[in-house]
Amino acid sequence: MRLLVVDDDPRLRDYVGRGLREAGHECETAADGAEARAAVKAGGFDVVLLDVMLPDEDGWSVLNDLRSQGDETPVIFVTARDAVAERVRGLDAGADDYLIKPFAFDELLARVTAVVRRRQGSAMVRGPLRIDPIDRHADLGGHRIDLSPREFDLLVALARADGRTLSRPDLLRSVWGIEFDPGTNTVDVHVGRLRRRLGSAASCIQTVVGEGYRLQSGEAAH
Predict the structure, then answer these.
(1) How far apart are CA 201 and CA 157, in angstroms?
(2) What are the residue boundaries of the structural domains of the chain, listed by start?
(3) Residue 46 has what pLDDT?
(4) Helical ranges in the chain per DSSP H
(5) Selection from 172, 213, 218, 168 nearest residue 195 by Cα
(6) Which of 9, 33, 112, 166 has CA 20 to 30 A from 215's CA?
(7) Is residue 95 exposed (0-12), middle (13-18) or buried (19+ Cβ within 10 Å)?
(8) What is the dotted CATH code of the domain comprising 122-215?
(9) Which residues carry this modification: 4-aspartylphosphate (predicted)?
(10) Nearest to 166 by CA among 211, 105, 200
(11) Which residues in the chain land under pLDDT 70?
(12) Whole-angstrom Cα distance, residue 96 to residue 169?
C-alpha cells in the first residue's frame, strides 16, 4: 500500500513512516494542510493518516475540502483529541476511522488494513486475474504471478480503473507519484514488462491509441 502521513511533529512522521516502510509499504509525509492537499492531488494513495491539529489549518478543513472535490481516498484521523464529540465529528465529516494518540504501531497498521479491506474488498477479479491489494499478490488461473513491487502497483492501478482507460500522466501520478514528463517512456516500459509477466493473459492490458492503457475485465479478457 501507499500511504500519506500528515502531521506537524517530525518525530511522529519519522516513527510512522519508518514503521510503514519496514512493514513493506510506501510512505510519503506532509507537515501541514497545504503539503497534504498537494500530495493528495497528485494521487495514488491508498490511505491518508491525518492529524487534526496542523500549523496552517485543521484536519477537518483538509478532509472537508477533499470530500467536496469528490476525492474518496480513505482517511484515518490520528490525533490527541480524544473527546467523543471530536470522534463523532471526524466520522461524520467522512473519515474512515479515528485513532487516538498515543497509539501502538500494530494497532495503526491493523486499522489501515481494515479500512482498505472495507473500501476495496480483499481482492479484485479481472478476467482470469485475481489481484489482492492487501496481501500484494496476483494470481492467474490459481497460480501466483511473480511481479516486482512497481509492476504490482501498476496492475492494481489498472484494475481499480475497472475497465476505464488511464492515460500515461494518470499512471505516473498514481503509481510513481510524479507529474507527467513527456520525455519519459517509464510507463510504456513497465507495461511491456507487466505484459511479459502475465504471459497468456498479456492481452488483458490493452493499448488505447492516443489515450493510454486499460485492463480488460469480464469474459472477454480470457
Answers:
(1) 17
(2) 2-119, 122-215
(3) 85
(4) 10-22, 33-42, 59-68, 84-92, 105-120, 149-160, 168-171, 186-198
(5) 213
(6) 112
(7) buried
(8) 1.10.10.10
(9) 51
(10) 211
(11) 120-122, 180, 217-222
(12) 28
pLDDT tens-digit series, residues 135-187? 788 999 878 999 998 999 999 999 988 888 999 998 988 888 777 677 789 99
Residues 12, 53: contact at Cβ < 8 Å? no
Residue 74 to residue 52: CA distance in whole angstroms:
15
Q: 2-119 has which fold?
A: Rossmann fold (3.40.50)
DSSP state of 173: I
- The pairing of strands 47-50 and 143-144 is unpaired
pTM beyond cutoff 0.70:
no
For the record, the C-alpha cell of 200 comes out as: 497468456
| Contact criterion met (CB below 8 Å) for 20 and 27 | yes
Give which of 128, 120, 190, 124 is closest to 159, Cα–Cα: 124
Cα–Cα dist 60/197, whole Å: 43
Task: Specify the pLDDT at position 218.
Answer: 55
Which of 157, 129, 159 is closest to 145 using CA atoms? Answer: 129
